[in-house]
């Protein structure tokens, strides 16, 4: 009798412990199912979207760089005349990068681009390999 009682007590403790450990704790520290439950979406709790203010004043949009102030205090950067900016600023390439044939083979940019293209090609070949 004593042995049976010990086995049953151990088994019940084992079951209780496993049941408690198998349930995840919620943010409040309570065991899931025993405390309050939050409404969950498919991927977890639903987050409220933050609405960012949009500048609509045309005069301000033309004379300031809207959104450039990252601090709580202060204001956005005021735009200056074109003559006050350096000349190289107007020669910056904003379109697609130049083709490999247009680059000089004696530059680092050429060899970096060539290496990147070779890595992409090898990765594509590895994908279609059958093993």
List the defining traits of the structure above.
mainly alpha, 131 residues
Molecular structure report:
- There is one protein chain.
- This protein has 131 residues and is mainly α.
- Among the domains are: 55-92, no CATH class; 95-131.
- It contains three helices and two strands.
- It has helices at 2-22, 58-63, 108-128; strands spanning 64-65, 77-78.
- The longest helix has 21 residues, at 2-22.
- The mean pLDDT is 78.
Order of helices and strands: HHEEH
Strand residues, percent: under 5%
The helix content is 25-40%
Model regions low in confidence, pLDDT < 50 over at least 5 residues: none
Gyration radius from CA atoms, angstroms: 32 Å
Mean pLDDT: 78
Compute the separation of the termini in Å. 62 Å
Major sheet summary line? 2 strands, antiparallel
Class derived from helix and strand content: mainly alpha
Number of strands: 2
Put simply, the count of helices is 3
Shape: flat
**How would you write the strand order of the largest sheet?**
1-2
Topology:
Elements: H1 2-22, H2 58-63, E1 64-65, E2 77-78, H3 108-128
Antiparallel strand pairs: 1-2
Question: Briefly, what is this?
Answer:
This protein has helices spanning 2-22, 58-63, 108-128, and strands at 64-65, 77-78.
């Amino acid at each position: 009798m004593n042995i049976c009682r010990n086995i049953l007590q151990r088994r019940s403790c084992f079951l209780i412990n496993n049941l408690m450990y198998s349930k995840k704790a919620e943010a409040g520290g309570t065991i899931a199912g025993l405390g309050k439950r939050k409404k969950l979406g498919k991927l977890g709790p639903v987050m409220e979207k933050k609405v960012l203010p949009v500048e609509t004043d045309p005069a301000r949009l033309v004379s300031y760089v809207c959104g450039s102030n990252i601090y709580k205090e202060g204001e956005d950067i005021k735009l200056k005349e074109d003559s006050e900016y350096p000349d190289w600023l107007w020669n910056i390439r904003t379109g697609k990068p130049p083709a490999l044939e247009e680059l000089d083979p004696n530059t680092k940019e050429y060899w970096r681009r060539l290496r990147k293209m070779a890595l992409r090609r090898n990765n594509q070949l590895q994908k279609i390999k059958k093993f």
